[in-house]
Amino acid sequence: MTTAIAGPAGTTRERAHANRTAPRLKQSRAPYLFIAPFYVLYVLFMLVPVLVSLWLSLTEWVGLGTPHWVGLRNYRLLATDVSFHRALGNTGVFVMIAVFVVVPLALLIAQALNTRGLRVRDLWRTAYFVPIVVSPIIVALIFGLIFDRQFGLLNSVLRALFGTGGVDWLGDPGLAKVSIGLVMLWRWTGYLTVFFLAGLQAVPKELYEAAALDGAGRIRTFTTVTLPALKPVTAFVVVTSFIGAAQIFEEPYLLTGGGPSESTLSVTMFIYRAAFQRQQFGYAAAAAVVLFVLVFGLSQLFNRLLGIGRATS
Amino acid sequence: MSATTSATSIRASVRSSAGARTRRGLLYLTLVLLLLAFLAPLVWALSGSFKPRGDIFAYPPKLVPDPFTLHNYRALIEDQPFARWFVMSTVVAVVATVVSVFVCALAGYGFAKFRFAGKRLLFGVMFSSLSIPFAVILVPLFVILVKTGLGSPWFALIVPWVAPAFGIFMMQQYIVQSVPDSVLEAARIDGASEFGIFRRIVLPLLRPSLGALAVWTFLQSYNSFLWPLVLVSDSSQYTLPLGLQTLFVSEQRQYDLVMAGAVLAVLPAVALFVLLRKQLLEGLSTGAVKG
Amino acid sequence: MYTPPPLPRRTLLRGALGLGTAAALAACGRDSTTARTSGDVNLALWTHDPGYEAFFRKGVPEADGLTDFRYHLTVTRAGPADIVTKLLAQAVAGRGTPDMAGFEIGSFPRMLRGDISERLLHDFTPDIATVPGLKEDLLPARTAPYSKDGRVYALDSDTPMVVYYYRDDLFTEYGLAKDTPTWEEFAELGARVHKDHNASLCVVSTNGSDTAQIVQSFQMLLYQRGGAFFDADQKLVLDSAEAEEVLRFLCEGLRSGFVIDISDYYGAAMQTALKQGRVIGLPMAIWYKSYGLVPNVPEQKGKWRVRAMPRFAEGGGTTAALGGTGFGVIKDKANTRAATDFLLNTWLTHEGQVRRFIETGYLPTRRSVFEDRQLRGLKDDFCGGQRLFGLYRDLLPDVPPQHTSPDQSILFDVLAGNLLRAYRGDVSPRSALRRTAEEFRDQAGR
Predict the structure, then answer these.
(1) Among the four given CATH numbers 3.90.45.10, 1.10.1420.10, 3.40.50.1980, 1.10.3720.10, the one describing domain A77-312
(2) C400 pLDDT above the threshold of 50
(3) Chain C interface includes A250 (CB < 8 A)
(4) Please, are residues C79 and C48 in contact by the beta-carbon 8 Å criterion?
(5) Which neighbouring-strand residues pair with C70?
(6) Chains touching A, CB cut-off 8 Å, 3+ pairs
(7) Where is the signal peptide, in residue numbers (chain C) (predicted)?
(8) Are residues C209 and C291 in the same domain?
């Protein structure tokens, strides 16, 4: 039965094409039933709250009592808010780190873990995965200690190796971003590896055999067989990493509080800060709407580029 | 035999064994270095959980606790309602995971393998909900749930989250990649019902990705903080992150207990991962045979 | 330890509170909830600190004796900021608010935004007014942070004076005078100690995840020097000559080593610095002993001493206030009266305030309690048997009032960033303060 998925016909585009050419009108109710549970929950617990928030973004509300209608004032204020612009810029940096550093590294590790005859594969996989299950409070505690300027482990190591320490990992505006990036790397890489591994498992072995018969080398096999076959998974990991990083909250919130001088303030932190520290719910809602529009627009763009739209139509 | 096994065996036969050995050595070296980087912070936390509070941050750091103490664990379990937090979190996460994986696979399949009117729009709506920042819906959602009498933690910590767009998108991607139309066609010709096909053919084919999704859903629920924080007002229904947080507020930093709590809190998630590892690794070929 | 309370005061308080109950009943009449006036009552209490929980639990018999209620407590613990978040969320949803909640002083300003406090919190002013002498006895410095338009919405846990902690043994060993009168002379001493022994006499926090902590290091000396963040009208008055002087003092201290920057007053870095003798003295609030020193360096018991801070040569006082937690009662609930009675009869009685100091180390908020003979006789083991209460009493007149603003968290965010810049030498103290004021005005208007 392995032949069922065999052959070069197994590429995304062709399958999608096959889909299009196989209409089944008489079962037209079935797909709606399959997707119905999602939409029921979506309308109740997502759409309605979003509409409420959209309305809130046009008001001034301290979190209690009646919101006052202010029209587009919140949006006008956002347009000139330096903090918000900083938050957008910082979030852009975090997104870049997620998409261009964390994701490729996860793919490489997955590829390494997929090597034939690898010993104690489970050990590696489990070990790399563990960081993501650690409670964020502990993550902050641990990394606060590692990055400490005076007594941090990282600076101790640097001092022992190179004789110079005293690097202000969390206090220097530029380095603080790097430090957040390192924590992102630590938390997310092993976790994304799991998705790539699941994807690699699904690559038909016949494709590798064919490539080997063609005399393709390691790198060429990777680029001509593995990568194309992993395209849907990669698209999925990239898009979700993008969306996740665009809403990054825990790492900067717990480790740097968005500082120093807002150099690690993310948009979600900005929203949280406005709502839950400053009681400006209307303003927070407006910022959230802006974030939503940006993320939505960019992920649509990603979809076009990565061909997700084609696979689904 | 897994897919990669045969591929690399052919490749290996072409190459000199000496080069392969060097490469393998490098591979293991890299893996070990990565292992150290990933685990060192946790080993430190583990060792800290067995140290008296005054020793946790001793400088230079000591790896082996001396004196070794179980006091932190005892204090956590005896003096704090840790067991209750633990059960609450685990039960909520397990229920949410089981329901969610099923719902996501259903919808993912619907999107991946059917043509229907409004599909593009419906998919866009589903997908765009991924990019709705949680902070946006937090307050309205809370008010809606409470006003409609659905504010019980058992409902509100689980139900609104069992159909995440992330999971549906993920399932859709995997199904496009790994469920061949020909299998479905064959089943239809045999007269199987649509739901029957989903249950008996599609689900088994999806095993590795169901495992990955289960892990994701479990973690989402298990580690979530902001939502339970706003929702749960009765401390007898606190989840683990909420409970640990109470040990760690403002000036009262009970590092010792938090370390022990963190170590224990990791266990269910790691257990789930180890349990599902077979699923995660199982080749698709076996699934197809069963189907 | 616990002396029986003097009878007259008790009966006075009880009689007066009885009147308060009648007034509250009248007020609650139109509300759908029927106010409880006596008998068994289960109070829901939210607090971040297990110390308060223990205090109130122990206070139940006392409150039972002084009121018509028989109290039971259900306590929920959450982080200081989370208590406000949860309270507002529950209030919006119209369910499950507590009867009584502890607001950490840094989180309380959120309650001042809009009309949140008026809508949600019981105003204690009439209750205070009905007890003869209580209004005059309560320290205005500790009601100011929880007041708005002359109404008191929460009652503080502490008069958290700032004092100077130092390692007596090391001061002796290094030959340092223990009574240096001014900060300026002290700073010279500090520079020398740093050069000779790699130790510092003052600390500033650089804890990024907690802007309030960064601000605190500066705040203590600022208020001692006579500066302030906000005036009584909630107007920003930070950008002052005093503020500049204090910030310059800290920045120069960092260069000379007199001051050390530590990431967290309560965590790993501080513990290491204390253990290694890198920090042998620091100005901090009186509660720091129980939260910073005792848990982190229990082995240094007996080696620490407390003195009043050195003065600034140019002026100012001898102390400041830092921290505190105000307990408020949620209004228009069935238990509002019961909770108010409970709070007043545990938190504000003479014997309650004595007990609070003994059990939690928090100083009384009533002037008269500072004269208590029992408290003045207490010896502190951690500080080598020092009798500290006399010192606190002497400092009391100097405790400056602290006014907040609903925009305080905005100030803390921008101030923390600019303090760090100044500490690192990226900007001058002058421009750090000016930028803070500018950024604050920009953001607070939103």
Answers:
(1) 1.10.3720.10
(2) yes
(3) no
(4) yes
(5) C40
(6) B, C
(7) 1-26
(8) yes
Distance from the C264 Cα atom to the nearest Cα atom in chain A, whole angstroms:
9
Higher pLDDT, C171 or B51: C171
Work out the minimum CA distance from B159 to partner chain C, whole angstroms. Answer: 19
- Listed in sequence order, the residues at least 6 apart from B102 whose beta carbon sits closer than 8 Å to its beta carbon are none
Is residue C382 in a domain? no
Report pTM: 0.85
Q: Which of the two residues, C276 and A117, has the higher pLDDT score? A: C276
Using alpha carbons, list the distances in angstroms from residue B179 to A166, B5, B277, C211: 55, 22, 21, 52
C54 touches B: beta carbon within 8 Å? no
pLDDT exceeds cutoff 70 at B8: no
Q: Whose CA is closest to A2, among B279, B175, B283, B196?
A: B283
CA A213-A217-A219 angle, to 5 degrees, is: 135
Pairing of strands C259-262, C202-205: parallel
Quick check: C9 pLDDT over 50?
no
**C339 and C297, same structural domain?**
no
Q: Give C222 or C23, the one with higher predicted confidence.
A: C222
Cβ contact, residue pair A260, C421, below 8 Å: yes
Tens of pLDDT, residue by residue over C173-205, are: 999 999 999 999 999 999 999 999 999 999 999
pLDDT (tens digit, 9 = 90+) per residue, C71-128?
Answer: 999 999 888 888 998 898 888 888 788 999 999 998 999 999 888 999 999 999 999 9
Contact B57 C272 (CB under 8 A): yes
CATH number at residue C236: 3.40.190.10
Please say whether the beta carbons of B228 and B241 come within 8 A: yes
Please count the structural domains in chain C.
Answer: 2
Residue C406 and residue C260 share a domain: yes
- Cis omega (within 30 of 0) on the bond before A260? yes
Tell me how far CA of residue C271 lies from CA of B75, C202, C280, in angstroms.
Answer: 22, 15, 12
Side chain identity at residue A299, one-letter code: S
> The sheet that has C325-329: what strands, in order across it?
C69-77, C39-47, C100-104, C325-329, C155-156
Is C210 touching A (CB cutoff 8 A)? yes
Taking the Cβ of residue C130 and every Cβ of chain A, the question of whether any pair is shorter than 8 Å is answered with no
What's the pLDDT at A55? 93
Helix runs in C378-428, H state only? 389-395, 408-424
> Helix crossing, A173-201 with A136-147: angle to 10°?
130
* pLDDT band (50, 70, 90) for residue C350: very high
Contacts of C269 in chain A (CB under 8 A): 145, 148, 150-151
Q: To the nearest whole angstrom, how far is the Cα of C409 from the nearest Cα of chain A?
A: 7
Q: Is a pLDDT exceeding 50 seen at residue A5?
A: no
pLDDT at A185 over 80: yes
pLDDT at A221: 82
Count of CA atoms in the C-beta half-sphere (13 A) of A43: 6
What pLDDT is stored for residue B173 in this prediction? 80
Q: How confident is the model at residue A17 (pLDDT cuts 50, 70, 90)?
A: very low
Beta bridge partners of C304: C167
**Closest C-alpha to C323, from C375, C370, C377, C363:** C363
What is the count of residue pairs from A and B with beta carbons less than 8 Å apart?
340
Segments forming the whole domain that contains residue C172: 162-320+402-444
What's residue A218's pLDDT? 78
Q: What is the pLDDT of residue A307?
A: 66
Q: Which residues from chain C sit within 8 angstroms of residue A269, using beta carbons?
A: none
pLDDT of residue A170: 87
Tokens of B157: 């910590």
Nearest CB partner across the interface for B234, out of C76, C296, C298: C76
Distance CA A246, CA A215 (A): 42
Q: Which residues of B touch A10 (CB under 8 A)?
A: 180
